[in-house]
Design a protein that fits this description.
The structure is a homodimer of 217-residue chains. Chain A has 217 residues and is α+β, with helices and mostly antiparallel strands. Chain A contains nine helices and four strands; from the N terminus they run E-H-E-H-H-E-E-H-H-H-H-H-H. Chains A, B: It holds the Pfam family GST_N.
């Protein structure tokens, strides 16, 4: 059986590559691995049949010869540790790249998610503006630290790795907010990732799926 | 040089083992590894000398023979992948345990952090109660899913792993909120982790450091 991912049947991001399968698709393309997808509706994601694969009723999942994995970070790490192309060969460099993968998910993404959650949970509340300004400031602290660390380098460590992949996937969620553009080196970093052929193949695949789903309805 | 962690000189949790070094200390104890600590003030954490180790100016960091790591998840994974005691021997079981480690940090912890951040950023705002109720409800969705998955099992997979360790570290941040107690199996799961001798040694070490620091001032 080929390697299979579950993905949204109709991604709420409308094909912009912001759903959590995007990073996994990108990692698979960097590693040169073919894969199939199985699409799920929002209702199907919350059913017991999918919760066996994904206890929180989310996408993506990854299936390979009887192994079922969830959490895009874990899936990307699994691909990176079993195939060339996403981690340096030296053990210390590899550990550093993995630290950046965790930093993307555990330090940089949470304030980005908090901000986007507020965008749809409290948009109609009178305190929306003040709360959003607080959340923006919390996020700016992280972005400033990340920008300082990256400096003029192309990638976070010596060469592109799964850590950059995850960080760029996370930063792409800021598209349209203007916050990324406050740090031109971070905006250029994201653009550098998006220019990679593997990114472009992954982006095209999820976009084509979204368009096909829309045309079928 | 012995393995060395950086930790808070005066932990804001007052020795309750809620700072991010707790999970790393626990993992080191499970693996039977000795370590030294270097304490840092809040001011020192934000200085360039520490940012070389930790770009976001936080603790803990991990130093071992020239390798410097940050992010507690990455450090715990590094320990788990290099020493016995924290991951199953079979590769698929190991990958599943690592998925839980990511789930703890990327799916369960963010709504816990969002809630505790609100506790000190908006406590004096008129909308505090309503916003907190929203954040509590978002967190309850995750806790309900986790509780359903755990069921009557002692651990998330067949045996205690780094995934349980990380999840229990994350859930301990809910102490005093009453939210954990809404799911007796999760409260028992945390207590089961806290009863492990390795947890108790790690807890005692960080607590003793806090007490010594307080007495010195």
């Amino acid at each position: 059986m080929p390697l299979t991912l579950t993905v949204f049947a109709a991604s709420p991001d409308e094909g912009r590559g912001l759903a959590r399968d995007m990073g996994v698709r990108w990692a698979l393309e960097e590693a040169g691995l073919a894969y199939d997808v199985r699409t799920l509706s929002f209702a199907a994601m919350k059913q017991p049949a999918h919760r066996v694969r994904q206890p929180f009723g989310q996408i993506p999942t990854y299936e390979e010869d009887g192994l079922i994995l969830f959490e895009s970070g874990a899936i990307i790490l699994h691909i990176a540790q079993h195939h060339a192309g996403l981690l340096p060969d030296d053990p210390d460099g590899s550990a550093r790249a993995i630290a950046w993968l965790f930093a993307a998910l555990s330090t940089v993404e949470p304030p980005i998610i908090a901000r986007s959650m507020a965008g749809f949970t409290i948009r109609d509340k009178p305190w929306y503006g003040e709360q959003m300004a607080l959340l923006d400031d919390q996020l700016r602290v992280r972005l400033t630290d990340l920008s300082r660390q990256l400096g003029d380098a192309p990638w976070l460590e010596q060469a592109f790795s799964a850590g950059d992949l995850m960080m760029i996937v996370v930063l792409r969620r800021l598209a349209g907010t203007g916050l990324l553009e406050e740090h031109p080196n971070l905006a250029a970093y994201v653009a550098r990732g998006e220019a990679r052929p593997a990114f472009q193949r992954a982006f095209a695949a999820q976009h084509a799926l979204f368009v096909a789903g829309r045309e079928a309805n």
